[in-house]
Batch of 2 targets.
Target 1
Amino acid sequence: MKTTITTKTSLTPEVESKLNKQVRMEGLSAFYYLSMASWCENRGYMNAAAFLYDHFEEEKMHMLKLIRYINEAGGHALAPEITNLRYEYNSFREVFDHILEHEIAVSRAINNLADFCFQEKDFATFQFLQWYINEQREEEAVARRLVELFDIIGEEGQGIWMIDQEIGKILEQIKAERAAEGEEA
Ligand code: OFO
């Protein structure tokens, strides 16, 4: 006999399915960063690797936050299947061009999801997604800064070494901001 699962949750099946798609996108983000971190570490770009490993943890947290929300709202969060990862990059710069492109795609996905929830009158999920909207705005800004390092410093001579040093400073700044936010909370 079919049970009326819709009485269990105010999440509509469409919202639940779209949230699960976003879970997968955050999981993919995490493993993209992990793969890029390993590529950088392998080539001795140690600050970039540290930045990317750190971001792997961030993206995992984004995925988990969504998973916990879906389940708490009475839905069923699905652990994502991660396939077709990329393991090779043609250059150091290509890693960061890829990050910016990917973060823009994630921002668009989150905006579309928030728009859908608003139209469905799922204001709780719409409100929950505001955190992701802000997070994406910050992440896109960081990704743009990273790409700009390549434009400003250039990769000639000691350029790559200097870029890697600057990435280290950006990571320190991010960690300091996180610590300050933690203190405020
Ligand atoms: Fe999940 O924050 Fe970027 O992708």
Note: The CA atoms of residues 30 and 59 lie 5 Å apart.
Target 2
Amino acid sequence: MPHLLSEIQRLTHHPITMKSMSMSRMAILRTMFLFSACIGIGFACGDDSSLKEVFRHHFMIGGALNDELVSGKDPQAAALVERHFNSITPENVMKWEHLQPEPGKFTFEAADRVVEFGVKRGMFIVGHTLIWHHQTPSWVFQDSNGKPVDRKTLLKRMKDHISTVVGRYRGKVRGWDVVNEALNEDGSMRQSSWMMVIGEDYVATAFAYAHEADPSAELYYNDFSLENEPKRHGALRLVKDLQARKIRIDGVGTQGHYKLDWPSPAQVEQTIEAFAGLGLGVMITELDVDVLPYDIETGAEISMRTEFRAELNPYPTSLPPDKEQELARRYADLFRVFVKHADKISRVTFWGVYDGRSWLNDWPVRGRTNHPLLFDRSYRPKPAFFAVVQTARKIH
Ligand code: XIL
């Protein structure tokens, strides 16, 4: 028992006294459970490693940050970021609707905060995202009569937005998701307003504008479900087209909104190899593993939504041991692929920091309790965390 207590103490970073024992009995019992769950699946727990340290020879480790964290209202999450991440991506505040909600009216306060947060800590800051069909106000695509805007006007709006935003953070934001989600599942171009008004060359034009605004920034194409062959082929075609036109593109971000059973490690591997084969950097940009059941196939298609039903929310308090272990094994399988191809991967970014604030609690179904990240609702490392750490040490 004394040994177990000191082990729990080490795991939780909380000194255990008689008083705290009675006060936080639930927390302790839960940790004991996690501890045994870890032993059960053969991953060494009680490891207080820092992810960025553990993977320092492999790739950067990043997280998407919300404004609450950045502005000091979630200090425990901020402490996790400082300890584990050397790269950050703003989860929302650099999207068009936040930066330019009305024509010519830029609002930079929240974006400035995230940049300052990263600069102060010497982190690699990623700008997300310049051109996307979602979280872009409808005025962008309309003329003063509410009719679809013409190509010339839209190109001008695109240029103004990109040069103002990229110019403002020149030298501080080191890489930009220039275009996000331009493709359909079958690899064809998504019929977004960008595509319909400007045509397919909106992608190349956006990259050219971004390069002009900060010639030293890295420029990325970012999308989800690139692990599926048809969509991956679409992205390869799109990237090759940019390269043929001598437009700067440094890398491709595969978002990594995964499920327990999709994609297979082989699909992930093929995706990394395919983009690296074009001489591009590869990044996992929005990693999380959805553990909840789904009744529609969404990919990470943000427009998809379904109604809340209790059977779609089976773990409202905590994840049962078998699922916790399944998630740990899943993360280990993924990171084994990332580590194997570390020479091709520059960064692995999680979409969030801890389960309590993951977007997957509200998408595609509002108000569920999801458990997709490495830190739980009490900011504690989960068995999946320890499993990931082990993959760097190659003790499997
Ligand atoms: C999500 C955010 O996490 C949510 O807070 C927001 O309500 C919607 O957008 N692909 C992307 C991200 O590129 O920008 C999305 O982020 C998740 C899917």
Note: The first strand starts at residue 60 and ends at 65.
